[in-house]
Amino acid sequence: GEDVEQSLFLSVREGDSSVINCTYTDSSSTYLYWYKQEPGAGLQLLTYIFSNMDMKQDQRLTVLLNKKDKHLSLRIADTQTGDSAIYFCAESIYGGYNKLIFGAGTRLAVHP
Amino acid sequence: GAVVSQHPSWVICKSGTSVKIECRSLDFQATTMFWYRQFPKQSLMLMATSNEGSKATYEQGVEKDKFLINHASLTLSTLTVTSAHPEDSSFYICSASSADTQYFGPGTRLTVL
Known about the structure:
The complex is a heterodimer of chains A (112) and B (113).
Chain A lengths: L3 E3 L2 E5 L4 E7 L6 E7 L5 E8 L4 E4 L2 E6 L4 E6 L8 E8 L8 E2 L3 E6 L1
Parallel strand pairs in A: 2-11
Antiparallel strand pairs in A: 1-3, 3-8, 4-5, 4-9, 6-7, 7-8, 9-10, 9-11
Chain B lengths: L3 E4 L2 E4 L5 E7 L6 E7 L5 E8 L5 E2 L8 E7 L2 E6 L8 E8 L4 E3 L3 E5 L1
């Protein structure tokens, strides 16, 4: 079945890089997403990658995809206190018109 | 672009009353919208898929007569929680589809007393 797993918590020092990991089970997944949720708010789309890509970079964000191992990671360079939030990994077979399968979310805490 | 709004942002109601939550795509048309429910410190649980002009598709275990969904236009979907009870208290989030992804609203916190 469909399943997405993430580690639940990550603590980093301000200015360091953060790496949030995610694994998924559905090899049919063609879209893989990273969303950010701040307390009491909805989900903000950070970035997404197609399954035929290995890497995508967008400013401080780098997404790496290992399709063979079904492993996705999000690297945040120069992590700031404003990056403290919950980060959700999600996958979809048909993109936006199909339901997203979410991981449990990784709580990122950035400390001075 | 790709802004989705929800109204209200929070609501408190008495047990037994009905509550309507609106989800609007402000700058794009969405033939498909989704309704999710999120419990504290948990992930999002898909409740139903809302398609413009047709009946919603509910996930297993979600009561369609309790959670009424209407998608009357390409920019508006509504979720009505009928005869609300304290166990319906939750954070409800909608999303609107584009070709590649879903854009999420800010959420509505429902508290049933």
